[in-house]
Design goal:
This protein has helices at residues 2-17, 27-31, 33-50, 61-68, 75-83, 91-99, 101-111, 118-126, 352-374, 379-399, 401-410, and strands at residues 135-136, 141-142, 155-157, 169-171, 175-176, 182-183, 187-192, 197-201, 206-209, 217-220, 224-227, 230-233, 248-253, 256-261, 284-287, 290-293, 309-314, 317-322, 326-329, 332-335. By secondary structure, it is of the alpha+beta class. α3 packs across α5 (75-83), α3 (33-50) packs antiparallel against α8 (118-126) and α9 runs antiparallel to α10. The protein is flat and about 110 Å long.
Length: 412
């Protein structure tokens, strides 16, 4: 029966997965084959849990188990588990399953009792895409700090558990050193025993210290100087260590400095405002300690000689604008072209109050019309109807007779 079982299994798996062989190997699979294998084994284990109480489903289960083998180790169960191992869109899982098809079959039929840990047997020992915890790289070398306590428990070993990575420890912020077994910059050793290290923060500007106090500094951060075990701020502006541009001034800050722009009136400055200028910019004049704006419009020389032009002073300069009623054109200031108002319709000037009157007239006409129809053309009701319409129209026209007459005459 073994050749039949193996042949049927291979045919079924190949039919469902051969499509994915045409796809190139994804970058994610190339860089993370261990994670793919780990997820595959995890999904396989869930499938085993899902089918643990199933059987062949035939009419005589006892006979089938006696003659064909127990369901828990059968080809039928294996196929049911494999059908749900990979989601339809997980190409990496399908490709890895296709590549490891024979290994999965071998483990299921002959290896699982000797090697019950499928992850170790498949991913570590057979495919060799994973390493034991605390190791990394192609040869599964021990991480710094040892495989039992990688990075001293204070960081993450690069590539741990995979056949990749550099093995370098990425330490937590408080720790440092090749194996994260020391305190990092800005921290001191508060407690230590054979297996555990506690690091606490130094006083603000200290990069190395013996305790949390201000006077326990051993080394200072950049921008600070050590003096009697204290870190004193360096005034970069006073020591000419700052590197500000020509039209900027320096402002000292704790451990650093800032470059800020001079006032617009200044051509170089020693601080903020027009009173700290080294020289005055063009368009400004010195008045005592300050650089003040020059009003070019008040000078004797005419700066805006064009017809209908006016001078307008601006901060550090001036501009020529057209007089009222004129606008700028390539020929200079020319009279503004006023747009003629567009003609309106008869109802274009109807006010809100007149709209209310019109609505009342409309409903009055409707009521009179219905009364006339109800009288079947009786002359009395017809006369009332015509009179009502005339009265309402006269009322409305009397309220706006002047505008209505003007509208009819002018076509508006």
């Amino acid at each position: 029966m073994a050749p039949v079982i193996w042949g049927g299994l291979a045919s079924t798996l190949s039919w469902g997965l051969c499509l994915f062989l045409s796809f190139p190997v994804p970058v994610w699979l190339q860089s993370q084959p261990c994670n793919t294998c780990r997820n595959l084994v995890s999904s396989f284990s869930k499938g085993l849990e899902r089918t643990v109480r199933d059987n062949f489903g035939g009419g005589n289960t006892a006979w089938e188990e006696e003659k064909l083998s127990k369901y828990k180790d059968s080809e039928t169960r294996l196929l049911e588990v494999l059908e749900g191992v990979c989601s339809k869109s997980d190409f990496e899982c399908h490709r890895l399953l296709e590549q490891s098809e024979e290994l999965v079959e071998s483990w299921w039929f002959s290896k699982q009792h000797q090697a019950p840990d499928l992850f170790q047997w498949l991913c570590m020992d057979s495919l060799k895409v994973c390493c034991p915890p605390g190791t990394y790289g192609p040869s599964c070398l021990a991480c710094p700090g040892g495989p039992e306590n990688p990075c001293s428990g204070n960081g993450q070993c690069d590539g741990e558990g995979t056949r990749q990575g550099s093995g370098r420890c990425d330490c937590q912020p408080s720790y440092g050193g090749p194996a994260c077994a020391q305190c990092g910059d800005g921290h001191y050793e508060a407690a230590r025993n054979a297996s555990h290290l506690v690091c606490e923060a130094c006083f603000g500007p200290c990069s190395r210290c013996s305790g949390p106090e201000e006077g326990s500094c051993l080394r200072c951060k950049q921008g600070w100087a050590l003096h009697q075990h204290k870190c004193v701020d360096i005034d970069e502006c006073g020591t000419e260590m700052a590197a500000c541009k020509a039209n900027q001034f320096c402002v000292n800050t704790d451990g650093a400095y800032e470059c800020r722009d001079c006032a617009k009136a200044c051509a170089g400055c020693m601080g903020a405002g027009p009173a700290r200028c080294k020289r005055c910019n063009a368009g400004y004049r010195r008045d005592g300690a300050k650089c003040l704006d020059v009003d070019e419009c008040e000078g004797e020389a005419e700066v805006c000689p064009g017809a209908h032009e006016l001078c307008e002073n601006t901060d550090g300069s001036y501009q020529c604008a057209c007089a009222e009623g004129y606008e700028r054109s390539p020929e200079g200031c020319v009279p503004q072209q006023l747009e003629e108002p567009k003609p309106g319709g008869f109802f274009s000037e109807v006010t809100d109050d007149e709209v209310v009157v019109l609505q009342q007239m409309f409903f009055g006409v409707i009521i009179c019309a219905l009364a006339t129809l109800a009288a079947k053309g009786d002359m009395v009701f017809t006369a009332i109807f015509i009179g009502a319409v005339a009265a309402m129209a006269g009322y409305w026209l009397s309220e706006r007779s002047d505008r209505v007459l003007d509208g009819f005459i002018k076509g508006r």
